[in-house]
């Protein structure tokens, strides 16, 4: 009976932490007017997930705010890169639609490229948190490497992430409570295992400092 009670208490504590982190993420994303806030807020949330998974530690408002400030510059650089790439992809897609309006294969190809771009962006944010001292180039190259060197785990990460978003979208209140924190918590658990496997096979993959 005591074991069940402790398990229930632990479950409720974890759920409350996830909800709390999601509300922090929403507040700090809005603080940066969404466009400039989503990157550092996501990195701060990932840092909280890292503490929760690897150290079983909770994150206070002060911790979240400090992480937000710490990752603001690096995540903004990553955002600018992918905003630029995304804009180029969109412009190119619109031009192709003018000349090939009925090509379903072309639309599917651009959709696939857009999904890859979003996924590499997310992996880059994961890398910023996991290896905060790495250079900008290493962060991006590692994201691309993980995507194509470990396609199975990358697919599992993508399906888990988008599966969570799909389930959460069934109820209007769930995205507000768990929309970012739950997918990123599950995603970080898969990502962390992938990075550990990668570094075991390629110990010189990441050079921090």
TrEMBL record:
It holds the Pfam family DUF624. InterPro entries: DUF624 (IPR006938). The keyword Lipoprotein does not apply. Keywords: Membrane, Transmembrane, Transmembrane helix. The chain crosses the membrane at residues 20-49, 70-95, 107-129, 150-168, 174-191. It comes from the Bacteria. This is DUF624 domain-containing protein. The lineage of its organism: Bacteria, Bacillati, Bacillota, Bacilli, Lactobacillales.
């Amino acid at each position: 009976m005591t074991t069940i009670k402790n398990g229930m208490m632990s479950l409720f504590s974890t759920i409350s932490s996830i909800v709390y982190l999601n509300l922090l993420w929403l507040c700090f994303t809005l603080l940066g007017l969404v466009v400039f806030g989503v990157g550092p807020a996501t990195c701060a949330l990932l840092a909280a997930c890292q503490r929760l998974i690897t150290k079983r530690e909770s994150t206070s408002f002060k911790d979240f705010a400090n992480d937000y400030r710490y990752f603001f510059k690096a995540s903004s650089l990553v955002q600018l890169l992918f905003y630029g790439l995304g804009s180029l992809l969109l412009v190119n897609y619109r031009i192709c639609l003018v000349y090939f309006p009925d090509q379903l294969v072309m639309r599917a190809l651009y959709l696939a490229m857009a999904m890859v771009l979003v996924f590499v962006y997310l992996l880059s944010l994961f890398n910023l948190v996991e290896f905060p001292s790495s250079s900008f180039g290493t962060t991006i190259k590692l994201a691309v490497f993980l995507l194509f060197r470990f396609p199975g785990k990358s697919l599992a990460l993508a399906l888990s992430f988008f599966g969570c978003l799909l389930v959460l979208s069934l109820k209007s209140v769930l995205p507000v409570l768990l929309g970012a924190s739950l997918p990123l918590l599950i995603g970080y658990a898969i990502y962390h295992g992938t990075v550990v496997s990668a570094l075991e096979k390629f110990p010189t993959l990441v050079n921090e400092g």
